[in-house]
Design a protein that fits this description.
Layout (H helix, E strand, L loop, with lengths): L2 H15 L1 E3 H8 L3 H13 L4 E3 L2 E3 L17 H13 L6 E4 L3 H11 L11 E5 L2 H7 L5 E5 L3 E3 L4 E3 L2 H6 L4 E7 L2 E3 L3 E4 L2 H12 L1 E7 L11 E4 L6 E4 L5 H9 L3 E4 L1
Parallel strand pairs: 4-5, 4-9, 5-6, 9-12, 12-14, 14-15
Antiparallel strand pairs: 1-3, 2-3, 7-8, 10-11, 11-13
């Protein structure tokens, strides 16, 4: 197992459990305890965990796994969700994409749509996510607009007041939100307040709002609210979403698409 793959696995285990012992982690990943100790030390230097006697704990109260270390958790669900979201976008529309693993899959699904292979432009994509802009910039038929701002290392998103100038001057047909949590009572939310503020602006500039979220995000709350549930037109999620959960969103006036 490569070091990057090992680090991804270690960080995901740490997020799930809150604490890891060296021997426990070594057994999980089938490597030596010395290797795990070295990994823990190096990750602690990057402030991605806190070293303890014999192991490690998550860094801080609210821990967010950086995008570059996220593995393909719920990968098949996210791919299905992404294809369904991409199908809701019409050629020639202006689309806002927030950052995140699911919205990155949406960008990839849009990139391979046959009816978007040509046009002037085939699609206008406005995003504050550097990785999404990088992937789509090689598509000459897409017009890519990147907001200003300061890059947030955890999500590759641009945040801060510099984005206001761009977003205040545009109109979007649809905004696609990647969220940490989505609940009928508490709305769509992110972990970071500055990230949530930019995502909120994208929503306000859009004619319709789509939340793209796997079922693990539903019925949950997170620190920073992006928008109220009644600001969302469509939720695209996977079929593991509970019947009661889907019913609550439907009763709130949100169209729910399960894939």
């Amino acid at each position: 197992m490569s070091r990057d793959a090992r680090w991804k696995s270690l960080l995901e285990l740490l997020v799930e459990r809150g604490r890891l012992d060296v021997e426990e982690a070594a057994a999980e990943l089938a490597v030596s305890a010395a290797t795990i100790r070295r990994d823990f030390d190096q990750l602690a230097e990057q402030q991605m965990l806190v070293r303890t006697r014999g192991g490690a704990v998550v860094h801080g109260v609210s821990y967010e796994l950086p995008l570059r270390y996220k593995t393909a958790r719920h990968a098949s669900e996210k791919e299905r969700i992404a294809k369904a979201v991409a199908a809701l976008v019409a050629p020639g529309e202006a689309v806002g994409l927030t950052g995140g693993t699911t919205t990155t899959e949406v960008a990839r699904a849009l990139a391979v749509r046959g009816d978007l292979a040509s046009g002037s432009p085939a699609l206008t994509v406005v995003t504050n996510a550097l990785n999404i802009a990088n992937e789509l910039a090689v598509r000459p038929q897409f017009k890519i607009v990147v907001t200003g701002g300061v890059a947030r290392p955890q999500s590759y998103e641009l945040i801060g007041p510099l984005a206001d100038g761009v977003l205040g001057q545009i109109t979007l047909d649809v905004a696609v939100l990647g969220v940490v949590a989505f609940d009928v009572a508490h709305g769509a939310a992110a972990n970071d307040e500055a990230e949530a503020a930019i995502n909120r602006l994208l929503c306000e500039r859009a004619g319709r709002v789509i939340v793209a979220a796997d079922s693990s995000k539903l019925g949950r709350r997170a620190f920073a609210r992006i928008c109220a549930a009644d600001a969302v037109d469509t939720l695209v999620t996977d079929t593991a979403a509970g019947t009661d959960t889907v019913r609550r969103f439907t009763e709130a006036g949100i169209e729910v698409v399960t894939v």
